[in-house]
Amino acid sequence: MRSIGISPNPTLAPTRECCVMHGISTIAATEIRIGLRNRWIILSSLILLVFALILVLIGSAPTGEIKTNAVTVVVASLSTLSVYLVPLIALLLSFDAIAGEIDRGTLQLVLASPVSRGTVLLGKFIGHVTVLSIAVVIGYGIAGLVAFYAGGGGDWSALVDVARLIASSIVLGATFIAIGYIASASVRQTGTAAALAVAIWLFAVVLYDLALLGGLLASQDGVFARTLFPWLLVLNPADAFRLYNMNAIDAAAMGSNLGGDMGSATPLSGLAVMISPVAWAMLALGLSTMVMHRIRP
């Protein structure tokens, strides 16, 4: 007697994939609507724009004998500004992504639906990155155009620096959004998640560089300065972002050799430096998914 087997349904996998994509898009759209209505995010976007415009006014001031494109000056200044503001905005977006759902009692409903935890996080991630992208494009886009026309226009290639800054800022923000999910999924109170987010920002943006500076002062010609420091500099996504943008612009035209020194001191150069924030984002998403699996509906 021939056994009767059940042949796989060829339409099952596509249907399941469609359900996953629908769940991701629905969650992302919800987060975009919530993010755009969030007053903290609107305020952060305005701060980003105001600081950028202030830097435009400073950068468009006379530079003496140094002939520097106004857009180049602004991009260099915004690169330093982004290291502080973009991670902060990203953490403000993500610190209550999970803890806030627990506080409001809505996480149980989300986890009870036929949507995996990874799908929930990916949908939130796409939505939050979209909101951050809107803020960065508006703030830096307007600032770049103002600097371009304030400098007399003409050199359209200078806008490539602005586009590169916007793209790398979005990558940096996406990294800290994913890192914020780890803090949000690890606690059950929004206040605790906010405190963790501030601690992450303080360590990554301020204390980490101070520790590296202390190591350089203690070992100027030792193993730390020659071997460990370059890798530790690239390891930090904020420092990697700054290195990438400072090395990409013409640092010599700024009357400074900072970009050249940074480029020669690091083991990676060019676009390869941005491997660090991308790798951190992927690792943080994986870790936050693992932590979220410990939460019971």
Automatic annotation (TrEMBL):
<feature type="transmembrane region" description="Helical">
    <location>
        <begin position="70"/>
        <end position="95"/>
    </location>
</feature>
<feature type="transmembrane region" description="Helical">
    <location>
        <begin position="271"/>
        <end position="292"/>
    </location>
</feature>
<feature type="transmembrane region" description="Helical">
    <location>
        <begin position="162"/>
        <end position="183"/>
    </location>
</feature>
<protein>
    <submittedName>
        <fullName>ABC transporter permease</fullName>
    </submittedName>
</protein>
<keyword id="KW-0472">Membrane</keyword>
<keyword id="KW-0812">Transmembrane</keyword>
<feature type="transmembrane region" description="Helical">
    <location>
        <begin position="125"/>
        <end position="150"/>
    </location>
</feature>
<dbReference type="Pfam" id="PF12679">
    <property type="entry name" value="ABC2_membrane_2"/>
</dbReference>
<keyword id="KW-1133">Transmembrane helix</keyword>
<feature type="transmembrane region" description="Helical">
    <location>
        <begin position="40"/>
        <end position="58"/>
    </location>
</feature>
<feature type="transmembrane region" description="Helical">
    <location>
        <begin position="195"/>
        <end position="218"/>
    </location>
</feature>
